[in-house]
Amino acid sequence: VWNKASEDSTGLRQYYDENKEKYKADERVHALVFATPDSILLERFRAKVLAGDSIRKEDLKKLRSVVPPRNYARSDSKAVDAIPWAIGLHVTQQEGTYYMVQIDNLVPPGIKTLEEARALVISDYQDFLEKNWVAMLKAKYPVRINNRGRKSVLRELINRK
Predict the structure, then answer these.
(1) Interatomic CA distance for residues 66 and 131, integer angstroms
(2) CA–CA distance, 32 with 73 (Å, rounded to integer)
(3) Which of 75, 95, 63, 77 is closest to 31 using CA atoms?
(4) Choosing a second label site near 75 at 20 to 30 A (CA), which of 25, 122, 145, 156?
């Protein structure tokens, strides 16, 4: 059940489509996040972007990390939370790391995409599959109580006291 939920992309997609109302989000921002411990390097990148130049792949290798553009909700990222939620380029420093955050747009409240809600959808899909499996097992193998055996066990327990 557990592996099937994460490996069954068709079933996962169908489950999400049938239950997408469960995966709502508040306001979010669509942003690209760059991180480096080097403030001078970050300032060079910032100047390049503000001048309209593009950053080359070999330049990106100098950074600690580059998170591909995605939607961020409040508390998804310390760096994104630390800046104003406004379109544009923002710089912040958190715990010894310098961040440059490019916010492309503000995303209004609404239903998360499958990619945004993937972990929650997989968890819910696992629960759904497990409940269906248990129901199928109960239907196939009904529980029968042996009353005669139950009575003898009860008599034995009463006699022990």
Answers:
(1) 40
(2) 13
(3) 77
(4) 122
The three-state (H, E, C) secondary structure of the chain, written as one string: CHHHHHHCHHHHHHHHHHHHHHCEECCEEEEEEEEECCHHHHHHHHHHHHCCCCCCHHHHCCCCEEEEEEEEECCCCHHHHCCCCCCEEEEEEECCEEEEEEEEEEECCEECCHHHHHHHHHHHHHHHHHHHHHHHHHHHCCCCCCHHHHHHHHHHHHHHC
Cα separation, 118 vs 28, in Å, equals: 17
Of how many residues is the chain composed? 161
For the ranges 16-20, 47-51, 116-120, 154-158, the maximum mean pLDDT occurs at 16-20
Tally of CA atoms within 13 A in the half-sphere of 23 that contains its CB: 21
Total-model pTM: 0.70
CA distance 121 to 112: 11
Contact by Cβ (8 Å): 94, 62: no
